[in-house]
Amino acid sequence: MDVAVAQTLFLAVSLSCLMIFFVRKRMYQRDKLPPGPTPLPFIGNLLQIETNGTGKALMKMSEKYGPVFRLYLGSKLTVVVCGYEAVKEALVDQGEAFGGRGSMETFNQVLQGFGIGFSNGENWKQTRQFSLLTMKDFGMGKKGIEERIQEEAQILVEEFRKTKQLPFDPTFFFCQMTENVICSIIFGDRFDYDDKEFLGLLQMINESFRLISSIWGQLYNIFTSIMKYVPGPHQRIRQCFESLEDYILKKVKQNQETLDPNNPRNFIDSFLIKIDQEKQNPSSYFHMKNLTATVFSIFLGGAETTSTTLRYGFLILLKYPEIEEKLHEEIDRKMNREHIPCFEDRSKMPYTNAVIHEIQRFIDLIPLNGIHEVTKDTQFRGYTIPKGTQVIPLLHSVLWDPTQFSDPESFNPGHFLDEKGNFKKNDAFIPFSAGKRICLGEGLARMELFLFFVSILQNFSLKSNTPPKDIDISPAVSNFSNFPHFYEISFIPR
Questions:
Q1: Are strands 76-81 and 390-393 parallel, antiparallel or unpaired?
Q2: In which residues is heme bound (predicted)?
């Protein structure tokens, strides 16, 4: 046989064997994946998922495929984990493997993989550790920040008095109140309620979160390479985020001009000092882009999550005036009108504590959780999840898990009360997620919610021009985040 022919034959056989090996390996890996619906080319399983109410749609899908199933968002393989037991096993028991952060281009187009919300690996570990320690230095979780929340609550009470019992949309009052607490840590200052620049930023943040949860935002995250060239409302997200980034850069430059390395005044000062300390380290994660991205993440989280919980919570109280009446009764019984509510009061106010927990459980603020990603090939409940696979640990399926909460679709403070009326914990209450990616500001948010709710209800009764039976407490928008329907409220001095 001719040598050239023999070599060609050998090469062909070798390539054929390799092809067979890789095809068999691919088929084996697919067989080891969790079950799931058959995807269509290019669009995957998008036609089988509701665009508004995605959390409920995925929970319904789990009834057919089990607590762990796969689907394709476009061409992106995604594994969904449902129910308290499975989510806990993933985020806590196998927290290292499930601790990666999946990509959301709506955020990454500005953050570029930095900050604490959408970074990974050593960058995320170092930035998160520094942020936690620094925010504690400036009072988070301590008496100092409690006094700051109390002060902001009293300012808001006076702002509500100025409304003269007239109905109004409370959205940006709550945004300004909660953001001012965050601003006291990162900027070292608060903003007046009539500050037009600050109010404009909050309006853009609210708008961008709504757009991210819309069908336009969903399509942008799934089909980024196409949608970034398509005109539409999703293009506004980048504009809003860039305006916020510009504002943060302006604040950073102001700090640089007056920085005293021996006397940091706020979070930005401390980060600038850290940048200077590591300027000789070319692989340092402490640089200007990471500073702006980190402040961006904290600022964004402080504006939307707690304020939306407050806004949704007061809508629920308008729906159930009998619950508001019980709250007033407990508040009046446990403290006089001159007493400024403090976080210690929570232990002697079980009904109020239960109502706040039930608000957080029921509104299911971030139903899909932050998108996770497995950091290595992972064995989970008999399946193999390849490294880099996007994972949705479905918070909706935990907070509305019927094995953990009786009649989860109903708003019932009794979910957190025992037969004697004492507050009752529930391990499935994880609105801040769990494991390594648990919300950085969980402790701060818990304190804010209690102090703000109690301070307002101590001073006001609630009134709506809409009869309770006609108030809709289902989400107006439900995808990345749940938003309540628009409403107006009157605060009547007590």
A1: parallel
A2: 439
Give burial (CB, 10 Å; 0-12/13-18/19+) of 414: middle
Ranges in the chain, pLDDT < 70: 1-31, 140-143
Say what the pLDDT of residue 17 is: 43
Q: Is residue 391 part of a domain?
A: yes
Residue 292 lies in a domain: yes
* Distance (Å) of CA 162 to CA 60, 203, 465: 47, 22, 19
Closest CA to 202 of 55, 121, 303: 303
* Structural domain that includes position 380: 34-493
pLDDT of residue 16: 45
Which pLDDT belongs to residue 331? 97
Domain count, the chain: 1
Tell whether 175 is in a known binding site. no
- Are the C-beta atoms of 337 and 458 separated by less than 8 Å? yes
Q: Which amino acid is at 408?
A: P
Query: Do the Cβ atoms of 369 and 395 come closer than 8 Å?
Result: yes
What pLDDT is attached to residue 31? 62
CATH code, 139: 1.10.630.10
In a domain, 8, yes or no: no
pLDDT at 415: 98
Residue 29 confidence (pLDDT): 47
Within a domain: 104? yes
